[in-house]
Design brief:
Mean pLDDT: 94
Strand content: under 5%
Radius of gyration: 12 Å
Number of helices: 3
Number of strands: 0
Order of helices and strands: HHH
Shape: globular
Distance between the termini: 20 Å
Length: about 80
């Protein structure tokens, strides 16, 4: 049975979320009542797979971070890293 690569998440993906997502979807502000910092990073057997699908969809469609938030912009490489 495959296992989630949580080490890569912590080393690579979590810092990208910290840079581009946490200020709006974290402990201080939770826009749309969504906190990315509270999601279980285990996409294979964790309890938040449905929420991660939402994150995937929004990132894949370039809807997040929004264009009107240039300080949180994700370049193509960072976006691809998260999506992968």
């Amino acid at each position: 049975m495959p296992e989630a690569n949580l080490d890569d998440y912590q080393k690579v993906v979590a810092p990208l979320f910290a840079k581009s997502c946490i200020d709006c979807h974290g402990p201080i502000t939770a826009k749309a009542e969504f906190r990315i910092d509270q999601l279980d990073p285990n996409l294979l057997s964790g309890g938040d797979v449905d929420r991660w699908v939402e994150v995937y969809d929004l990132l894949s469609q370039n809807e997040m971070p929004p264009d009107n938030e240039p300080d949180y912009h994700l370049n193509d490489e960072a976006r691809s890293t998260i999506i992968d």
